[in-house]
Amino acid sequence: MIPIRGFNQSLPMMLLKAREAAMSRFRPMLRKHNLTEQRWRVIRVIYEHNHIDAGELAEKSFLLSPSLTRILRYLESEKIVLRSGDIKDQRRSVFRLTDKGKEIINKVAPETESIYSDIERIFGSKEFSKIFNLLEKFSCKVNKQ
Amino acid sequence: MIPIRGFNQSLPMMLLKAREAAMSRFRPMLRKHNLTEQRWRVIRVIYEHNHIDAGELAEKSFLLSPSLTRILRYLESEKIVLRSGDIKDQRRSVFRLTDKGKEIINKVAPETESIYSDIERIFGSKEFSKIFNLLEKFSCKVNKQ
DNA sequence: CCAGTATACTTAACATGTTAAGTTATTTCA
DNA sequence: TGAAATAACTTAACATGTTAAGTATACTGG
Asked: How far, in Å, is the CA of B109 from the C1' of nucleotide D22?
């Protein structure tokens, strides 16, 4: 009967729970706008960059390319983003927001900010920045390669 | 042109990255044993409890019941877990590990502990317990209801 | 005792996660 | 220059996440 580290002592589990605690506050709102967390990430990143190719988009939105392919297909079909080919490198696709995409930003961004503020207030902004810095260090150090 | 909180300042993103940094160290090992992260969570929880019903299993393994249903179907088909009905309440199913399931524990648990120790050493055990405590607080406070 | 409600799953449907393999366009370098 | 290696996706296949609806059993109040 091997003793196993209990789940309450597993850091990956704690990270999952913390993330779920936060995301459960965003999801219902996003859902009202027909957005998933991932779709919203993609829209945000395109907005921040104005135009961006799929590779960089995957990196910045922290999505694997097969997921991104599907999400972009959806966002294109809904005319939220526009795809155009890169002239210099025909392998690349470049994406930008349509007017509809920009409208979504205008509607959704304030709501996410408000929820974000709630979380910061509930947890305490001092603790908030502490956990933030620790998480950053953790990602840097623990990441392989 | 609304200014949006950058991704580098988004706590949910930081939590995701930190978790990914950790999990990328476990996944290749689990894969060699034909396990996913979630299958391993389920096996661990059943082991800890000896026998457990699906409801409690979902809670402890932090899986939604539709996912759990599918995972248990797989683990049953591989004869890693055994399902039996609860006599007092015919709605419930009770699960326990088979000998094959226990063998998996014996093989995999030491490997996960070793990876876990690596992470703790790389990050520093002092920082480790700090982040741990902060995450716990965060989950408690931010969780709705 | 029984109609109404609640509980414990299971199914369904769609979206994303994960790995491997495929396709087309660019680079590299012999 | 042209075959081989790379790069930038896309497809495929299977697993899980997420919400809503379905099914069977247990409970509860009148």
From this structure: 38
Per CA to C1' distance, which residue is closest to C16? A67
A22·B47 Cβ contact <8 A: no
Alpha carbon distance A118, A95 (integer Å): 32
- Look at residues B92, B112, B90, B91 and name the one whose alpha carbon lies nearest to residue B44: B112
pLDDT band at B143 (very low <50, low <70, confident <90, very high): confident
Q: How far apart are the C-alpha atoms of B134 and A135, rounded to whole Å?
A: 10
Structure tokens at B90: 């015919």
**What integer pLDDT is reported at residue A145 of this predicted model?**
54
B26-139 CATH pick, 1.10.10.10, 1.10.630.10, 3.40.50.300, 3.40.720.10: 1.10.10.10
Per-residue pLDDT tens for B88-138? 999 999 999 999 999 999 999 999 999 999 999 999 999 999 999 999 999
B84 touches strand C (CB under 7 A): no
Cβ pair A22:B45 closer than 8 A? no
Indicate the average pLDDT of chain B. Answer: 94
Looking at 2.60.120.10, 1.10.10.10, 3.30.420.40, 1.10.1040.10, the CATH number of the domain A27-136 comes to: 1.10.10.10
Nucleic strand C within 7 A of Cβ B55: yes
- DSSP symbol at B5: -
- Residue B109 near chain A (CB below 8 Å): yes
Inform me whether the pLDDT recorded for A6 exceeds 90.
no
DSSP secondary structure letter of residue B82: E
Residues of A (8-37) whose Cβ lies below 8 Å from B: 10-26, 37
